[in-house]
Structure formats: structure tokens, C-alpha cells
Amino acid sequence: MLEDFEEQTVATRDWSVAAQRELAGRVVRGELSLDAAAANNWLPVATIEQWIVEYVLYEEHWAGQEVPIDRSFWGQLDALSAATVLEHAHTGRKTCRVIIENDDGGGALWVEDGALVDAVFGELRGEPAAFALLSLEKGTFGIVFGPPAERRTITRGTIALLAEQRRRAARRAALLESLEPRDRVVVPQMNAQLHLLTLEQRELMLHFDGANTIDDALALTDLEPLEALEALHFLIEESYLVPGVSEVGRTGYSDLTSASNTLRMPEHFAEEKEAVPVSIPARPVRAGPSRLLIGGVIAIAVLGWLGLAAEELLGGETRDAVARAGDEAVETPPRAPERAVVATADAPAPCPEGMVLIDGGRFFMGSDSEHPAMSLATPVHKVELTSFCVDAHEVTVARYHRCSDVGECERPHRKSFWPRGGTPMKEWTRARELHAPLCNEGKPGREQHPVNCVTWQQADAFCRWEGKRLPTEAEWEYAARGNDGRVFPWGDARPTAEMTNACGRECARWREEVGLPELTPMFTRDDGYPGTAPVGRFPAGSTPTGVHDVIGNVFEWTSDRFYAYSFEDTTEPARDPRGPDQGERRIIRGGAFNSFLPQHTDPALRFPMHEEAYTHGIGFRCVSAPR
Question: H or E element: which one contains 55?
């Protein structure tokens, strides 16, 4: 043993700086493994690791310069951990960016004068992103020297953060061991009291769709690894998640609420064998005796009139379409507008042309559904709103161009983008390519289709250019549902292919043609549009006030950032509620042309989407104050 030590000491002392860098460079470039380099040259692994750090971090030729990523600047995480790289950057008081990639995604750490100041990994930012990156054991890292980061999200000292990371690593290892075997399928309890869970626990629970394993859910979630493990451990310990197969099949639960399969990871639709009807409970009617009496008198008075007026209101084409629905739905006659506004010379219309007045009032916002896809929409709570005007139709491509053609709005994108999360880069890139033709910008003949593939900022800028704004969540839901407790915008009859542009036979056929996984569509009929439809093409699905396409066609941006509804009991309604002032995710509402779950048609459905996303399934409409 003493002889070995003496030989290693001599060998280390005899290596010139040039020879050290040459050997370190071979390891960094992948020409030689770390263990082989140590064994072949009688060198301790720790010595070669130090040489690698000097080779990558302390090259004076690159110090202080912004250089492109090159293979010569990359190393393997199994040869040099991310924590070790950060430790040496801190010791050397370096300003650089450390890029880390593996099969689950990529991220970066920003170091300024040796201090870690920012980190990003998927949708995580700041310390959660740093902990996620520092916990990676496989993949590659690269270093780029350059100017400091523009953002500052990390204030904790680097050494303290590294110490916390070691504690978290030990806790993570213990939790992973307690969750064995991780390849088992677990499913949510349908009668679970979801309102008792934290937001993180509820979001994680939605990843279990009846066929996902523990490892599947951990790969799909955007939560920081330890946060996800803590939430998962609680859900299993408290029997919110149990071993077995879902009672409602893979359609019953979707990835990150019912919208994410079509927006964030459209290539990961669940493969379904059979469509299973899911009943949506009717919302309680909250009406006093006087309201019921008046309603009954009005119903008797207009019963005969409805039969005579149906043909004129529906039109022959729509009437025939409703008749073709057959056994898919119970045909319901159209309802007269809840409020008709007549403009006179002395009293101009309260809303600009193309907008509908929504009288202020109270309604019950949210859902009492126990389905996990609706967990972010619970509990039901009372809201009071002032009157507002809302666009009768979603903003079209042609209307948006009036702003972009004069240089006031950015052009819509021609390719979808959504947060990659845990999706492998190849699958994510392929999905974007397959869905690019569904963006309406630059496509002849789609001028009257809703504009899509726009970010929240683009939607907000357009509404402001028109002297309007994006609706709040409460305004959007009130315009869609009214204050009479109806289940859908058009009433209580379940949706059909004649009421909304959602995923029907045409959707399944398109997915088969482009090579996406098979799914069971919402309708067995063909609604005629594998993508978006011209606005107003489904009048049978409009609201009594004349607001069209609130369900289907495209999801719609709202002004509110994401927040969880409160479970505190209160008798006083929230007045004109708005979301928080901070946060990068905005709420989208309304379902889209590729929505295939019944829950997509519930006006209470909420889905948080990063405001910089622009997808084929998201558009918008505007609101304004009455004149």
C-alpha cells in the first residue's frame, strides 16, 4: 500500500500542466472514461477531477468571454457532479453559465463572481430549479463564461445552498426507497376529499390516469423532485392513491388536468379501448319561491311560441344538424336572449359593435365535481360582478391582422410552443412539427378562424389596442354560464358535435394520419373541422345572450394569474375578483377543437398555462366596460 501511494505521488508530481490539460480534455470529450484515465496513469480519481475543473473552468483564454457551446466544453455528470462544478466556480469566483442536460430535459445555473444568482429547469426557476439540477446524476454539463445573469432569483449563499442540497439528497434517497416498487400502477380514490390537499398534491394526483406508474408520474411532473416525492409519499400514505386500475379507464384522469394532453404534451394522449360515459352532476339551482313561480308562468306563456319560432331562430341547416344528432343528445329548443338591448337615437347601444352586454349580478363560480380533472375548479363560491361587454366571437385572424399590419401587434406564430416539462427533446420537437399546420397564421382561407398560436402578451396587447382588455376568470365564466346555474353555455343538454367544435371522428382520423397515438374522441360524429372552425359556425352552442364558441374551437386566455380557490366559508360574495399580481402562469378557459374529455366542456374548467406559450389550442376574446 505504501509503495502504491509513493508511485501515485511521483506520477502526479511529474505531470506537466500541458499533460494534465491533455488528459482532462480527453475525459471531457468522452474519448476516455474517468476510471480508465485513473487506472491507466496511476492517478487518484479526485486528482483527475481537479484537472478537469481547471481545464473547463480556469482556461484563461476564455475567461470573461461569451463563447458558443462547443463539445470541448462539455463533460459527463458521472465524471464531475453539478455540485462539484458549482463548488469550484464559487471557489474561483467565476462568472459563468453552467448548462446541464439529460434525457428528462435541460436547464442552467447562473454564477456571478462565484455566487449562484439564478437557475432554470423546465418550468422551475430559482432555488427549486437549482435543487432539481444539482440532484441530477446522469447527463452532460457545459460551461460558458460571459456576462452576469439579468435576473436575480437566488439570495441564499452558495455554500448554504449546497449544504441544503446534501440534506435534500439524503431525504430524496430515503423517500425513493420507501416508494418501492416504483413500477406499480396506482390510481386516485374517486371519493377522495381533494379540497384537503395542497395545490402541489392535487396537481401531482392528476398524473395518475389509471395506467401510470409512480415512475411515470415523477417523470411527467413539473414539480421539483423532492417536492414531488414528499407529495407522492403523503398521497400514498393517506390512501389518496391506491394500487389498481382506474374504474373509469384512461379517459378518467389526464396529465396535469384535462387540457395538458392537448397543449403541453399532445403526443402523450392515453390509448383507450372503449369510451366510457362520465356523468356530470347538474349544478344546484339556487332560486327562491318567487323566482320559480315567475319562471313557471313565463314557461307556460312561451311554450306555444317556441314551437313556431324554432324554425326561424335555428334556421333550416342548424335544425337538420340537431336532428342528425340522433341518440347522442336530447334535442333542446333554442332559448330567447336573456336580455335584449335596443339602441335608439337618444340611447346608443351600451356596447361597441360585435360585443354583447352582460348585466352584472351574482353567480356561483367553480365546480362541485369530484372528478380529479376539476380539482383546480373547486370549491363552488359566490361571486358578484359589475356589468361588462364581451366579444360575441373569438378574435379572428383577419381582425388581429388589423393590429399587426400597422405595427402595433406582433404577428401570430406559425408553430406551436408549450413548456416541455419532462418530455424528451425528440418527442417534444416532433410533436411541435406535427401540430404546426394547426396554427392559423399564414394559412389561406382561415381569415375568419380564431387567431391562435399567440402568447398571453400578444393577446393582451391586441385587446389594449382596441381599447379593451382580456376578461378576468370570473367574467369569462359568468359570460359562459350566466346566473341561472345552467351546466353548459347553451343549457343543460349534454354537448354534441352540432354544438361545439371539439374532438370528434375527424380528430381521431387526423391523429391516425399524422401518426399520433389513438384516442377515444368525445363524439362519434364528424363535426367537419379537424382543426379550428370559422367563428360562429356552431350557433346551437351559443349562450342565450349570443356569445359564441365559449366551449370548444380554442381555449381562451384570461387576464388572471393562477391561484387556488379558497375553502374558507363565507356568506359574502367576492366582488369583481382578480388573480394575484405575481406569477408566470395565466388561466385559460373553454376547451379546444382537440378536447376529447367530457370535462373539457365544463365552463368551470381551469388550466394554468405559461404566459409565454403559444399553441394551436389557445386563442382569446376581449371585454370592455359598457358605455
Answer: helix 45-57
Given the C-alpha cell 441564499, which residue does it identify? Answer: 156
Asked if 536 contacts 393 with a C-beta cutoff of 8 angstroms, the reply is: yes
Q: SS3 string of 452-506? A: CCCCHHHHHHHHHHCCCECCCHHHHHHHHHCCCCCCECCECCCCCCCCCCCCCHH
Provide the mean pLDDT of the chain. 76
User: Chain centroid to CA 627: how far?
Assistant: 36
State which amino acid sits at residue 613.
A
Measured distance CA(153)–CA(127) in Å, rounded: 8
**What tens digit of pLDDT does each residue of 299-346 get?**
333 333 333 333 332 333 333 333 333 333 333 334 334 443 444 445
What is the C-alpha to C-alpha distance for residues 31 and 37, in angstroms, rounded to an integer? 10
- Please name which of 614, 585, 343 lies closest in space to residue 452, comparing C-alpha atoms: 614
How many CB atoms are closer than 10 A to CB 235?
Answer: 23
- Look at 339 and 46; give whichever has higher pLDDT: 46
Please answer whether residues 116 and 108 qualify as being in contact, where contact means their C-beta atoms are separated by less than 8 angstroms.
Answer: no
On whether the CB atoms of residues 365 and 383 are closer than 8 A, the answer is: yes
Buried b (16+ CB within 10 A) or exposed e, 244-279: eebeebbbbbbbbbbbbbbbbbbbbbbebeebeeee
Candidate from 201-210, 390-399, 510-519 with smallest mean pLDDT: 201-210
pLDDT single digits (tens) 97-124: 888 887 767 788 988 888 899 998 877 8
Burial class (CB in 10 A: 0-12, 13-18, 19+), 294: exposed
**60 by DSSP, 3-state: which?**
coil
Asked if residues 179 and 232 have their Cβ atoms less than 8 Å apart, the reply is: yes
Closest CA to 85 of 75, 68, 20: 75
CA dist., res. 516 & res. 510, Å (int): 9
**Cα distance between residue 54 and residue 38, in whole Å:** 17
Q: Residue 224 is placed in which grid cell? A: 421539483
Quick one: residue 183, left, alpha or beta (phi over 0 = left, psi -120 to 50 = alpha)? alpha
Summarised one tens digit per residue, pLDDT across range 360-385 is 999 999 998 888 788 899 999 999 99
pLDDT of residue 480: 96
